[in-house]
Amino acid sequence: MLNLKHKLNELNPQFLRELKGRLKTRNILLAGSISLLGQFILFMYFQVQLPPSLIKLPHANKYCTGQLKYSLNDCIFDNSNNIIINWQLWYQDVFNLLSLLGVFAILVGGTYLLINDLATEERRDTLNFIRLTPQSPQSILYGKMLGVPILLYAVMLLAIPLHLWSGLNAKLSLNQILIFYVILFVSSLFYYSGSLLFALIGSWLGSFQSWLGSGFVLVFLLFTEQALRHGTAVSNPIVILSLISPQYFIPHALANFELDNFHWFGLPLGESFALTSGFSLSVYLIGIYFIWQSLQRCYRDPNATMLSKQQSYLLTTSFAVITLGCANWNSSDIKDNFAGLIFLNLWLFLYLIAALTPNRQTLQDWARYRHIYSAKHPGKRKLIKDLVWGEKSPGVLAIAINALIAISSLGVFVFLASNQQWDNLNAVGSLIFAFSLVVIYAALAQLLLFMKNGQSLLWTNGILGAVIILPPIILGMLFSQPSNQTFLWLFSVTAPLLFVYPPNHNSLGAMLPFLAILGHASILGLLLFQTKRQLQKAGESATKALLAKN
Q: Burial, 102: exposed, middle or buried (Cβ in 10 Å; 0-12, 13-18, 19+)?
């Protein structure tokens, strides 16, 4: 044991630290008891679902093998007067529920534990001591990911024998079961990495942070579980949300999920379970790569943006390629596919606004540098280059460039996949308003983060969320539908969709969108003017203070 501890300490000291704090005898016994007791209750629950063998009268049960009547099968008897039971279906249901519980437990429970642990260390300032150690950020974060949920891992490992036994008795392929394990492992890395990032950047949420993060994962899994239960369409790019939920790779679920029709840029990936699984793993790994880029930046410097501007352009391009491939290019109903792409890109840009918008201190440093540089080199201004590539410059222009990348890809999709059922001018209008709204939200977030307030992050998220969510709610309450006061609806987040699904199936014309886009330009100009004014003021003040000290 001493040699093992020594090797673990050399390999990953943070992992050994987490093990020492959690692998107490009481905790191990409690985890083992919970796992075994839970398996026993689940097994007994399914035992109760079997038809009672003592009743010899005709009756029906899900696990009988007779004729189907009212969603139940008639029970038939063999020569020994015993009920013939569909054991394959019974084992399949055991496997199904155990898999589903495992997915929820390991993703939701692990997410809560990781966020709570890292956020607690951040609040107690012990994380700053860990930062001072010679360990690399990767070593510390890997140690957290492996060690914090160690008791949860023990609970899951004890359930594997029952899971494998039920799956093999349900006549499921061992390869499919093993692929599900691989998908669950990689998805855990994806969600756990996101949890660590959220823990580092969301410390302003306080004790509510861990509940919010795990609650979001829970809602997402419940949403995809309901979509799986009722079947899900694979001809819409929103199917990508299904492919990052490991529930869809539980072998029994393939009957409800129409994988056979899944295509990516016309390639029939759905015809092969291995190809679909490989595509899902690729999406997970790309997501893990970008999350870890953000993790390393935020861990080294809490004031740094989550992504550099170069990384954001690569992320947007990768996202566009993945989501466009999932769209149905031969669909007769292009509107639903276009609306799905708009929906997915909205979430991408909410993340980019958070990832590229620097805080007040960073902007002050940048403004001071710009002010001094402009004074010394009045003829060598490199402002545009700094706004496009700089680490500390405002992120509005970079977000606008990312928006141009996204709408360019959407424009290619519209013009290559469009048909006579939809006017391309409507698509252009939708993309223009989508671009305008994204840049306005980015400029508003940048201005709000420059406030002199200790809770600027809280106010920024609250106000930006209200600006996005409240207008369509208020307009819906006042005017019930977009056909009433359409001009006002063009200033809400639903504006791009008004071109996809025009009110009363009529075109919006040219005058209303033209006036609305002028209004958007005025709002954006006001926000940018105010931001520039604040930056100039901060740069002058910081420079004067610096010169006074010297």
A: buried
Instruction: Write the CB contacts of 470 (distance below 8 Å, at least 6 apart in sequence).
Output: none
Looking at the chain, the number of H-run helices and the number of E-run strands are: 22, 3
Do residues 516 and 487 make contact, with C-beta atoms less than 8 angstroms apart? Answer: yes
Percent of the residues in the chain that have a pLDDT greater than 70, as a whole number: 87
Q: Which residue has the higher pLDDT, 111 or 378?
A: 111
> At 72, phi and psi to the nearest 5?
-125, 155
User: Rg for the chain (alpha carbons), in Å?
Assistant: 28
d(CA 431, CA 113): 41
Element (H or E) spanning 60, and its range?
strand 60-61
Residues 6+ apart with CB under 8 A from 282: none
Q: What CA–CA distance (Å, rounded) separates 51 from 60?
A: 8
**What is the C-alpha end-to-end distance of the chain, expressed in Å?**
59
CA distances from 200 to 108, 137, 150, 390, 532 (A): 18, 13, 21, 23, 29
Phi-psi map region of 231: left, alpha, beta (phi>0 left; psi -120 to 50 alpha): left
Per DSSP, 85 falls in state B
The β-bridge partners of 68 are 73
What one-character-per-residue DSSP string does 412-444 give? HHHHHH--TTS-HHHHHHHHHHHHHHHHHHHHH
Banded pLDDT at 182 (limits 50, 70, 90):
very high
User: pTM for this one?
Assistant: 0.89
- CB atoms under 10 Å from CB of 31, counted, come to 21
Query: Contact, 434 vs 345, CB < 8 A?
Result: yes
Q: Is 406 left (phi over 0), alpha (psi -120 to 50) or beta?
A: alpha
Q: Are 460 and 445 in contact (CB under 8 A)?
A: yes
| Residue in the structure block whose two tokens are 């509510």 | 208
